[in-house]
Amino acid sequence: MSRRGWLLFLAMGVIWGLPYLLIRVAVRQIDPALLVFVRTAGGALLLAPFAVRRGMVVPLLRRWKPVVAYTVVELAVPWLLLFQAERRLSSSLAGLLIAAVPIVGAVLAQLTGTDRLDRRRVAGLGVGLGGVAVLVGVDVGASSAWAAASLTVVACGYALGPWILSRHLSHLPAMSVVFASLVLCAAAYSPAVAFVLPQRALSASVVASMAGLTLVCTALAFVLFFALIAEVGALRATVITYVNPAVAVALGVGVLGERFSVGTGVGFVLILGGCFLATRPLRGSEASAATAPAPATITAPTVAEP
Predict the structure, then answer these.
(1) pLDDT tens, position by position, 95-154
(2) 294 contacts: CB under 8 Å, gap ≥ 6
(3) Angle, CA of 220, 160 and 184, to the nearest 5°
(4) Residue extents of the structural domains in the chain
């Protein structure tokens, strides 16, 4: 991999491991619905120059249904649930639970016939789910059980989004699809803004977290992510999936002082190990016997943007 590729890879590993900390700080004073609106509306404004040039948005009008579906499963529902969950869960725990997205993606590929599970992949699913069970059993209290359960929906949405892209939107400009989904999500949440405005002045840390989520973790992240795919390919770009949780845990423990228990460590190893096994390419004869894959996705498959 080139030097530029390594720089982009490291940048994305940090940038998409950072949101969990910023979300945890922001939701202390900001309603999750308002945070979704700020992040999507701000991201759309910043990405507009990249998306609207040369009429790149016009082709989306003919494919509005899958664009809406993608917006719902990748942004509108997951971001609201994730933001709400982080009012009760630590940022490091949220980051680890979301790290199970590749496992959900492997199951989805099997169910839709775009790929299949061999024994190694099935073992990976079991290991990864065991890691989730350890985290839930050790680090999630009764009062936080529903918050942890809601992250299952988030993980499913993050896995389903790339599938919709690959099946229905792969021929469209990637940046335009992301831009359109941000605009649609912001429009959907705009009616609620007047009812969830903060009643007191926001702290500097909350304002900085909101700005970081919008500027760095949304607008800049998508620009760099597509540059990373162009530089190293979609398959290599998915490796950031294994870096993001480590960054989320390190920031949560180091910056916010969150607890790092034995259960956290064991769950971390099991989830990432399970993701690695569950998403490894099939070997020679197994690959040739597998069902033909779906069209190439315009983003790296099953990489979640938190």
Answers:
(1) 888 887 877 877 887 787 766 777 777 887 788 778 777 776 666 765 578 888 899 899
(2) 112, 114, 163, 166, 167
(3) 55
(4) 3-289
